[in-house]
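Exercise: predict the fold of this chain.
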Amino acid sequence: MNTNIIISAIFIFMGIIIMLISIIRMMSFKKVMAFVIKSHQNSIKRYIILRHLLMMLLFLSCFIALIISVFYKRPINEAFVSMIFFFGTLYVLSVTILQSRILSEMQETIQVILPICFKCKKIRISNGDHSDPKVWKAIDSYITERANIKFTHGLCPDCFEEEKKLIEKQNNN
């Protein structure tokens, strides 16, 4: 085998591996969706699945076609290579649009004013009647539902000292 074929095959195989890793990694986008406003989540998911995944699969099939042409020593059509570069630029544009859209959605979500009780720190989860106990939720439950974050409870040093004094006071009585 000549050096050009070996170099081409190495780069094409690396492209295939990177594309497969990218497809697998793309499936983890669901973690970010917790920070996107619920009413916009479906449109972003459709965008990711229809545009992003289809473009990745197109590239993967182009890489496979290229590796076959290299191994069978078939000349690669210049129009085919041009098409791959064109779709490459579309892919980069698609990813850029997707990233900026998700980031702006996350910024919108974070900037929402969140009513919180100054005493117990519960969060009002809807614009309903603020006197209705059903619209208030513990902050750890609220965050866990939206961000897939698990909480563990402990005491900070100040609260630990306060609780320790309370226990000692109860034991002395």
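Check your answer against the key: Helices lie at 3-26, 30-33, 38-71, 78-110, 139-147, 157-172.
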